[in-house]
Amino acid sequence: MTFPLDDLRRWPDVEAPGLVAVDAADRLILDESAAARTGLPAGRLVVVGDAYGALALGAASGGARGIRVHQDALTGERALHANAERLGLADAVASLPLDAALAQGAQVVLLRLPRALDALRDIAGLIAAHAAPEVVVYAGGRLKHMTVAMNDVLGAHFTRVDVSHARQKSRVLIARGPVAGRDPAPARESHGDLVVCAYGGAFAGAAVDIGTRFLLDHLPATVPSDGTVVDLACGTGVIATTLALRHPSLRIVACDQSAAAVASARATTEANGVGDRVEVLRDDMLGTQADGSAAFIALNPPFHSGAAVHEGIAPRMFADAARALRPGGELWVVWNSALRYRPALERIVGPTRQIARNAKFTITASTRR
């Protein structure tokens, strides 16, 4: 029986018409790597960047076991394990951080190419440093998201990079001969008194994106200290770190579902001397926060689910913020003015007032009913 790739689900990530759990690039990576995976000893296959489990579970259905998997998004990781449980393959896969233990002794690596070149550098360097000398990396993606620069990044860490034929607007780069291995290390930039650290794949890198910068300029002068203060979708931890620097008595929770963001935010808080007052968590929205526990939440919401733009992401975050806020607590949001989030904030959270607006962004504060 053919493995039911089309039965895979995205849950707990956004599920909607047009948003898929598996695509042509996943299928091409599996096909190109099939011979290399045949007879592979247990524990020698590594999968990186698997969106919802298609690569790992496709390989497991062919007999692979002891598959080590790293996914940046927590929702993707949870989807992988939900799909594995449903298909009776839960014992075939294990999720690991992007560190030496993930790549150690790997002979075959299946990789969905990340869109950020810095993320690819971190992954390629890690594999080259810790995989077996005979490792073969099958790195694939959709043609519209691939660039020649990806070949160059792989070429810096492998002696040979071959290119597959394109199929259904997808292609695979096949890398062999690991060289110049290195463990990931964060980039570091100073922005006035603030030091920002970023691992590859963190949104905006070690810069401060313009939406976040606008919010920093308009954060309230006083922030409640008698309830949890949260930097939701914290990215590199710029907002949480700034709040901690401005309010030395404040303790803050910074959370993001991205493993790269969480590692970056921890590095940023440590670099600015506030790591003891900012708890950085990998979380799906505010899943670890109790109902009615937060006094103040700051949010610069993402609008991508993987590579797809989807308008339902921010309202889900607004709803979870409303759940976590205590009555009278405030959600401060910066958003692209064209997205017109204010009616949703009024409906989901409560009375909403405009704090600031410029040519591109709007900042609002919504008070929990």
From TrEMBL:
| Molecular function terms from GO | S-adenosylmethionine-dependent methyltransferase activity
Methyltransferase small domain ranges (all copies): 195-364
Q: Which SUPFAM superfamilies match?
A: S-adenosyl-L-methionine-dependent methyltransferases
- Judging by the UniProt lineage, the source's domain of life is Bacteria
Pfam families, alphabetized:
MTS, RLMG_N
Start and end residues of each RlmG N-terminal domain: 7-175
Q: Which UniProt keywords apply?
A: Methyltransferase, Transferase
GO biological process terms, alphabetically, are:
methylation
InterPro entries (UniProt xref): RlmG_N (IPR058679), RsmC/RlmG (IPR046977), SAM-dependent_MTases_sf (IPR029063), Small_mtfrase_dom (IPR007848)
Name the record gives this protein: 16S rRNA (Guanine1207-N2)-methyltransferase
Q: Which organism is it from?
A: Microbacterium kyungheense
